[in-house]
Amino acid sequence: MEPERGLAGVTDVTPPPDALRDLYGARYARLVAVVGAIAGNRADAEEAVQEAFARLIGKWSTVGSYDDPEAWLRRVALGVLSNRRRKARNGLRALWRHGRQDVDDGPSGDSVDVRRALAALSQAQRAVVVLHHYVGLSVAEIAHELRIPVGTVKSRLSRGHAALAPMLREGIDDHA
């Protein structure tokens, strides 16, 4: 949800520069879509992107001069997402140690849409697949943005494609 211009009771806050407001207006929805495709959850994506923009305010003097501030925002949002997932996973592990073990059978049914297919991938594979196919980044750009080796990006793309192929092939074969 986009913040209102004036917040009651908030004082001594310098409003963000126009360029930052313009970046928010132009890129917020796209960033939520990209991070949401990776996260598999729009609410988590919105929170992560909002957190990234909040962090950007304090770093605007530096990041504003970058060729692609959106890439910085994406990297931060994915880092926020990763940290939250790690904390949640650690919480579940702690819960399991105390006797509760839920089993998730995963998606079922004859047709699986792209979102559900992406959800079957690991977050690392989802990230490279979405950044490559949705955002249109090259392997080298993904490696730079995620701070991982090019070979790791290629491996994750290959494994992601291999995992997605059988799930998405059914819908394609039905129309042949």
TrEMBL record:
Record keyword DNA-binding present: yes
A Pfam short name: Sigma70_r2
Q: Which domain of life is it from?
A: Bacteria
Q: Which keywords does this chain's UniProt record carry?
A: DNA-binding, Sigma factor, Transcription, Transcription regulation
Reply yes or no: does the keyword Cytoplasm apply: no
Segments forming domain RNA polymerase sigma-70 region:
24-89
List the protein's name.
RNA polymerase sigma factor
Q: Which Gene3D superfamilies match?
A: 1.10.1740.10, Winged helix-like DNA-binding domain superfamily/Winged helix DNA-binding domain
Tell me the ranges covered by the RNA polymerase sigma factor 70 region 4 type domain, including all copies.
Answer: 113-161
Q: What family does this belong to?
A: Belongs to the sigma-70 factor family. ECF subfamily.
